[in-house]
Automatic annotation (TrEMBL):
The keyword Phosphoprotein does not apply. It holds the Pfam family YknX_C. It comes from the Bacteria. Residues 286-351 form the YknX-like C-terminal permuted SH3-like domain. Residues 1-26 form the signal peptide. The keyword Ribosomal protein does not apply. It comes from Dechloromonas denitrificans. This is Uncharacterized protein. One of its GO terms (cellular component) is efflux pump complex. Residues 206-279 form the CusB-like beta-barrel domain. GO terms for molecular function: efflux transmembrane transporter activity. Belongs to the membrane fusion protein (MFP) (TC 8.A.1) family.
Length: 362
C-alpha cells in the first residue's frame, strides 16, 4: 500500500535522502572562477626616439677677406670641392690698381732713400773737413733715417696690396661639400660677408633637439643607436658629443649633437635620421597596476598556467601611470591575472578571459 506525505514534508525527505547517499569524507567540487588575464610583455616605452638631420661636425661660412663685386661663382650647392680649388672670384680691377699704386710708392721710397743716403755721405765728408756744421749734418742724417723708414712702410704696403690682389679668388683649405650658396655673381659683397657655406664630411653627426624633461636621460644613456629613414636596415652607433647649456628661446628645447661612430658610405649629409636612446641592459617587463598585490609579504602576481592560478613573488622596479615595471620574478609571455584576484586560492582552477592591453586598443 502506497504511503502519501503532506506537500511540506516531501522536500525535506528528498534532502535527507540526498545527504544519506553522500559519504561523510567527500568534499564539494571546487568552483571554477572566471578571471581576466593579460600576457606579460616587455616595456617598449623605456626608450626615446628623436628625429634629426645628418650634419657635418665642421661647417664653415666662407667669405672674401676684401670687399668688391662678385664677378663669378664657380661652384653650386652640393658640389664636392678639393683643397685650393677656386670657388668664386671678385672683380680684380680695383685690387690690381691698389697693387700698382703700392708698387709705385715703393719705387718712390727707394729713390728717396738713395738720394738721402748720398746726401748724408756727402755731408759726412764735409763735416770731417769742417766745411759744414754738426747741425747741418744732423739734418741730413735725420732725412736719411726718415727715408729709410718710409721705404720699409712702402714695402709692407706693397706686400699687403699684393696679398689683397690674391684674395680676389676664394678657395678652401680643406676638402669639403658646398651646402649653401649665399651670394650670386654681380652682387657687391663686403669683407667677411659669407658667400658659400661648406661642410667637411670626414666627421658626421646627428643634430637633434632634447626637451628639458629628458636631459638626464640623454646624459646618462648607455647606448645610442642611429638609423636612417631612407635606409632603415642601417644602424650606426652614436655618442653624445655636445649638449647646449641653454634652451632655445623659441622651441624651449636643448640642441644636441650625436657623433656617429664609423658610419658607412650610405650615410650622407642632410639625410633624416632617428636617434634611439635606451639602456644596454635587458628591457623590463610591464604589467597592469591592478595585477600587483601585496598581502604583507611583498609584491606578488597571480600567474595562470594550465588553467590554474598560482601566486608568485616579483620585484617591482618602478610604478608608473601605465603599469608596474617588473625587474624580476616574471618572464615575457607569461599570463597574469588583472581582475578577480580577491578570492583566489593557490592552485585554484580558473577560466581565463584575455583583455586587450591599452597599447593595443584603438
Amino acid at each position: 500500500m502506497a504511503t502519501f506525505y503532506p506537500p511540506r514534508v516531501a522536500p525535506i525527505l528528498a534532502a535527507l535522502l540526498l545527504l544519506a547517499g553522500c559519504s561523510a569524507g567527500d568534499a564539494p567540487p571546487a568552483a571554477v572562477r572566471t578571471v581576466l588575464v593579460q600576457t606579460v610583455a616587455q616595456a617598449d616605452s623605456g626608450m626615446s626616439i628623436y628625429t634629426g638631420e645628418i650634419r657635418a661636425r665642421h661647417e664653415i661660412d666662407l667669405a672674401f677677406r676684401v670687399g668688391g663685386k662678385l664677378a663669378a661663382r664657380l661652384v653650386d650647392a652640393g658640389a664636392e670641392i678639393k683643397a685650393g680649388q677656386p670657388l668664386a672670384r671678385l672683380d680684380p680691377a680695383d685690387l690690381q690698381l691698389a697693387a700698382a699704386t703700392a708698387r709705385a710708392q715703393l719705387g718712390a721710397a727707394e729713390s728717396e732713400l738713395t738720394t738721402a743716403k748720398a746726401e748724408r755721405e756727402r755731408y759726412a765728408g764735409l763735416l770731417g773737413k769742417k766745411f759744414v756744421s754738426q747741425a747741418a749734418f744732423d739734418a741730413k742724417d735725420n732725412a736719411f733715417n726718415s727715408a729709410q723708414a718710409r721705404l720699409e712702410q712702402a714695402r709692407s704696403q706693397n706686400q699687403i696690396s699684393g696679398n689683397q690682389a690674391s684674395y680676389s679668388t676664394l678657395s678652401s683649405e680643406y676638402p669639403a661639400v658646398v651646402t649653401a650658396v649665399l651670394a650670386e655673381a654681380g652682387q657687391v659683397v663686403g669683407a667677411g660677408q659669407a658667400v658659400l657655406r661648406l661642410a667637411r664630411p670626414e666627421e658626421k653627426e646627428v643634430a637633434i633637439a632634447i626637451p628639458e624633461n629628458r636631459l638626464a636621460e640623454i646624459k646618462t644613456a648607455q647606448s645610442l643607436a642611429v638609423n636612417l629613414w631612407a635606409e632603415p636596415k642601417i644602424t650606426v652607433r652614436g655618442e653624445l658629443r655636445e649638449l647646449a647649456p641653454a634652451a632655445d628661446p623659441a622651441t624651449r628645447t636643448y640642441a644636441a649633437r650625436i657623433r656617429l661612430i664609423e658610419p658607412p658610405a650610405e650615410v650622407r649629409l642632410g639625410m633624416t635620421a632617428r636617434v634611439v636612446v635606451g639602456s644596454a641592459g635587458a628591457a623590463p617587463l610591464l604589467v597592469p597596476l591592478n595585477a600587483v598585490i601585496d598581502q604583507g609579504q611583498g609584491p606578488l602576481v597571480w600567474v595562470v598556467s594550465d588553467g590554474k592560478a598560482t601566486p608568485r613573488p616579483v620585484q617591482v622596479a618602478q610604478f608608473r601611470e601605465d603599469g608596474a615595471m617588473i625587474s624580476g620574478g616574471l618572464q615575457a609571455g607569461e599570463v597574469v591575472v588583472v581582475a578577480g584576484t580577491a578570492k583566489l586560492v593557490p592552485g585554484q582552477s580558473v577560466q581565463a578571459k584575455p583583455v586587450t592591453p591599452p597599447s593595443g586598443q584603438r
